[in-house]
């Protein structure tokens, strides 16, 4: 069955999904610099791929699912020095997600699941705050933060190293999901950059430049492959499915 996209439905079709207590998946990304070889919307591409993979798996398990239009704008302070990056306040991000959750809950949807692919620390903080606020108003929300255990341990070695912005991890996924958006001759010519963004964040650095990424990439883009990207998309989809099932089970138990 084709993956249902909320934006493609009529209001009556959306009503019927709400009445069936369908699962709604929200892809969340950013518009920010991703090296000289990947599009500004890289995180949106990855979030959409994660959402679609989870939706397909959930449908196979007998669930009704709809994928929402993605959130493309968020806080992106680390990349603010690079042209094309668009950053909004964390409060805007939190408020947007809470508003989405309220609307879906009003119309009967069982759960809002967040498929996030952007890891700016202020953005992640905004998402965690949104989840708390959603639950406080009675909305059921699932957000597997893949920068944390146990989810992070299921992803690639480069991802776990923290040197993964526009590197092998992200380049592989975009190659698998939207290969036409990759400037491949530039990708193959890039030298590895082993600087770890996660280490930079822990040490108090706040920009890609300070973290050792003058071209807005970290990791090894030249080592990327479509096969790795396809495998990672599958893992991301399963992580989201498992997080959704855990949240539904937690809610049913209370």
* SSE class: alpha/beta
Low-confidence stretches: none
Q: Whole-number radius of gyration?
A: 18 Å
What level of helicity do the residues show? 40-55%
Beta-strand fraction estimate? 5-15%
Describe the sheet with the most strands.
4 strands, parallel
CATH domain class = Alpha Beta
Give me the CATH superfamily: Creatininase
Order of helices and strands: HEHEHEHEHHHHHH
Please, how many helices? 10
End-to-end gap: 33 Å
Strand order of the largest sheet: 2-1-3-4
Number of domains: 1
CATH fold-level assignment: Rossmann fold
- Give the rounded overall mean pLDDT: 96
CATH architecture label name: 3-Layer(aba) Sandwich
Q: What gross morphology would you assign?
A: globular
What is the count of β-strands? 4
Give a quick summary of the entry.
The chain is of the alpha/beta class and 254 residues long. The protein is built from 10 helices and 4 strands, in the order αβαβαβαβαααααα. A 4-stranded parallel sheet has the order 2-1-3-4.
Give keywords.
254 residues; alpha/beta; Rossmann fold; 4-stranded parallel beta sheet; 10 helices
Structural description of this entry:
This protein has one domain (6-253): Creatininase (Rossmann fold). Helix content is 47%, strand content 7%. It has 10 helices and 4 strands, in the order H-E-H-E-H-E-H-E-H-H-H-H-H-H. The protein has helices at 11-19, 42-60, 90-106, 121-136, 157-161, 168-177, 184-189, 197-202, 208-211, 226-253, and strands at 23-28, 65-67, 111-116, 141-142. The chain has a 4-stranded parallel β-sheet with strand order 2-1-3-4. The longest helix is centred in the C-terminal third of the chain and has 28 residues, at 226-253.
């Amino acid at each position: 069955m084709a993956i249902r996209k909320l934006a493609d439905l009529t209001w009556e079709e959306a009503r019927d999904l709400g009445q069936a207590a369908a699962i709604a998946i929200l892809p969340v990304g950013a518009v920010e610099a991703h090296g000289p070889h990947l599009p500004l919307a890289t995180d949106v591409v990855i979030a959409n791929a994660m959402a679609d993979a989870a939706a397909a798996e959930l449908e196979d398990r007998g669930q009704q699912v709809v994928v929402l239009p993605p959130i493309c704008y968020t806080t992106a302070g680390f990349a603010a020095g690079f042209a094309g990056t668009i950053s909004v306040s964390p409060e805007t991000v939190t408020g947007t997600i809470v508003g989405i959750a309220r609307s879906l809950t009003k119309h009967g949807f069982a759960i809002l699941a967040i498929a996030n692919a952007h890891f700016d620390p202020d953005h992640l903080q905004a998402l965690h705050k949104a989840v708390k606020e959603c639950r406080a108003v009675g909305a059921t929300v699932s957000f597997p933060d893949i920068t944390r255990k146990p989810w992070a341990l299921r992803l690639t070695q480069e991802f776990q190293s923290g040197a993964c912005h526009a590197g092998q991890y992200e380049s592989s996924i975009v190659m698998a999901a939207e290969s036409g958006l990759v400037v491949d001759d530039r990708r193959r010519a890039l030298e590895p950059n082993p600087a770890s963004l996660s280490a930079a964040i822990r040490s108090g650095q706040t920009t890609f430049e300070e973290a050792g990424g003058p071209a807005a990439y970290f990791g090894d883009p030249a080592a990327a492959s479509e096969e790795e990207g396809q495998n990672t998309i599958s893992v991301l989809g399963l992580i989201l499915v498992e997080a959704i099932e855990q949240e539904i089970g937690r809610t049913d138990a209370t």
